[in-house]
Amino acid sequence: MTTQPARAVVIGGGIGGLAAAAALHQRGWAVTVLERAPSLEPVGAAISLAPNALRALDVLGIGDEIRDLAAWQGDGGLRTPGGRWLSHSSAEAAATLADPGDRTRPARVTVTAAVPAGTARGAVGAEELEAELVVGADGVHSRVRRALFPGHPGAVYAGFTTWRMLIPLPGAEFASHETWGRGRIWGTHPLKDGRVYAYAAATVPAGAHAPDDERAELLRRYGDWHHPVPAVLAATRPEDVLRHDVHHLAQLLPAYHLGRTVLLGDAAHAMPPTLGQGGNQAVEDAVVLAHHATDLPAYTADRLPRTTAIARKAVRVARLNMAGGRAVTAVRNAVLTALSATGPALFLRGFDGIANWRPPYASGRQPAGQR
Fold it and tell me: What are the C-alpha distances in Å from 50 to residues 34, 63, 109, 167, 356?
């Protein structure tokens, strides 16, 4: 008699949901992914994948393929709006900090219910899907999280909004950088194919929008900043700009599972993007979940302390880089300059315990007790 594989339903087809589906499938689960978007299309933004996420992708067998696409190959750092460098860092220093000798490098469906018993209803038309595992990977405003923990207040506004754009800028030469102003930041990162990924953030009231268009808003806020910011804005069309308010989970969840339903990524631990770890932690979640898929309390015990610490650090960094007071900004810049003078390795120590994470098992190798 043929034994049927255990079934999993993954709600959400973002980076965390798809990574979880791949990891579970690799472990022998029959996986259904539910995504309300009619197709998976580029959205005009990029993602930074740190060594910790790349190691998780190694488990899925695609780490090297992603490394080959890595855009950041050289130096970068933090600058002031006038162009002065506050600190320098390098790909080599970051890789060494992540793990000496490691070859990784930084790289830049509507569901009406998900109940603890492990049932997703209303996911595909009138069809009801049942599974031994339901994975809520449905983002910062997760409906699965709300069903599991109805008393939780959910995501709250982090105090700032973001703009993102991905545009062609052939021939442009500049170092990858992030620029910190007063209550405003800007980042510009050249990609391999001649395009540039740029982003900005500013402290504004929640729900605010430009009176004309978001490109015009960026020109007003950043048009007089250092090169290449004006060049990037000159090459940007209004329709190239994405704007989203930032929300995060200020109140922690008591667990990342209830019964046979589990949360991962932003659904579990939405954090400000100031450490670039949101997507990275979702990929980690996916691999660890596959490892603990038959023992969800172990998944919570593994992931909750780590993601909580990283989310809290992201909030602290957001307070630092979005500081708006003149005196606070001056002190911040002086400290960053002093840290940079001691060398990039010391400045990068803020990523200790983040970038050097390793998955619970390696690609192609089952953990003891689950062979």
Answer: 27, 11, 29, 23, 9
**DSSP reduced 3-state for 134:** strand
Report yes or no: 75 and 90 within 8 Å, Cβ to Cβ: yes
**Spatial separation of the C-alpha atoms in residues 216 and 239, rounded to whole Å:** 11
| Residue range 114-155, pLDDT digits in tens | 334 444 443 444 468 889 999 999 999 999 999 999 999 999
Tokens coding 196: 């540039």
Q: Where are the beta strands (DSSP E) in 137-241?
A: 156-168, 176-180, 184-190, 195-202
Strands 261-263 and 133-136: parallel
Q: pLDDT tens for residues 79-104?
A: 999 999 998 876 565 555 555 444 43
